[in-house]
Design goal:
This protein is of the alpha+beta class. The protein folds into 2 domains: 106 residues, DNA mismatch repair MutH/Restriction endonuclease, type II (ECO RV Endonuclease, Chain A); 109 residues, DNA mismatch repair MutH/Restriction endonuclease, type II (ECO RV Endonuclease, Chain A, 3-Layer(aba) Sandwich), CATH 3.40.600. It is 31% helix and 19% strand. The strands form 3 sheets. Strands 1, 3, 4 and 5 form a 4-stranded mixed β-sheet that branches. A 3-stranded antiparallel β-sheet has the order 2-9-6. It has a two-stranded antiparallel sheet with strand order 7-8. The protein starts with 10 loop residues before the first helix and ends in a 7-residue tail after the last helix.
Length: 236
């Protein structure tokens, strides 16, 4: 078993570590670090993310900070198919719904989280029945793809800002029930909770505050897939 590496000194060292993992299988990495990631990709996604955090020397853990606090860099492992297309939205951070009216993009946690992101694709190569029936979630071989350190361009940030203001503006004006995952060009609001019984308070429009499922900001697959190919992409 290989010990987890120390935290990287700078962004260049972190990127170098991530690039060195390209082509390595998830099973191989797991064995080297003494971690188990058995099961279908849909049920082990969190374990794969934790595995890559450990392999790269992330120290942020579950604290309210970046995965690499000293570098202000967030790590996002993103499951993609053999064409490089993401299979799902990417979680960014939780949202304080009661603060929607007072939230500002410049000081928001979502902007801080997206200021520098190390994207690490995890490619699943479907085999056998999984190739014919991908909805079943059977496990094919998973390997690390080409990592990319990304910061939003001015044009990209303008779109994210617009999404942020539209989403939180609707919540503040009309309540949480006026918003759905369809709102937002790249950034969207979706439920984020361990199970459906979890509740938090949120503006309910004319009804006052209501109890609802916690929400989080997510990036749409069409955006993440585009920037994995071109960091300056402006997808529709």
């Amino acid at each position: 078993m290989t010990a987890s590496p120390r935290a990287p000194h700078d962004a260049a060292e972190l990127v170098g570590r991530a690039l060195a993992l390209q082509g390595r299988s998830i099973d191989e990495l797991a064995r080297g670090l003494g971690v188990r990631v058995d099961g279908a990709p849909v049920s082990t996604k969190g374990k794969v993310g934790e595995l890559l955090e450990r392999a790269l020397g992330a120290r942020g853990g579950s604290a309210a900070t970046w995965d690499f606090p000293e570098l202000a860099i967030e790590l996002k492992t993103i499951p993609v198919d053999e064409r490089g297309i993401p299979s799902e939205s990417t979680f960014v951070c939780a949202v304080s719904l009661l603060d929607a009216e007072r939230a500002e993009w410049e000081t928001s946690w979502v902007r801080a989280k997206l200021s520098r992101v190390l994207w690490v694709p995890v490619i699943t190569s479907a085999i056998g029945e999984a190739r014919e029936r991908p909805e079943r979630g059977e496990r094919g071989e998973r390997r690390v793809g080409l990592a990319r350190l990304w910061s939003p361009s001015a044009e990209q940030e303008a779109v994210l800002l617009g999404d942020f203001e539209e989403i939180l503006g609707r919540i503040a004006a009309s309540g949480i029930e006026d918003i759905s995952a369809r709102v937002g060009r790249w950034l969207q609001l979706r439920p984020k909770a361990a199970h459906g019984r979890v509740r938090t308070r949120a503006p309910g429009g004319d009804e006052g505050d209501v109890a609802t499922v916690p929400r989080g900001f997510y990036l749409r697959p069409r955006f993440t897939g585009a920037i994995l190919r071109d960091p300056l992409a402006l997808p529709p």
